[in-house]
Amino acid sequence: MNDERNDETAAPPNGGGADDMVAKLVAENAELKDRALRALAEVENTRRRVERDRDDARQYAVTGFARDMLTIADSFQRALDSIPAEARANLPAQAKAVIEGVEATERQLMSTLERHGVKRIDAAGVKFDPHLHQAIAEVPGSGRPAGTVVDVVQSGYRIADRLLRPAMVTVAARDSTGAANDATPGGQVDTKA
Question: Rounded to an integer, what distance in angstroms lies between the CA atom of residue 158 and that of residue 163?
Answer without folding.
Answer: 4
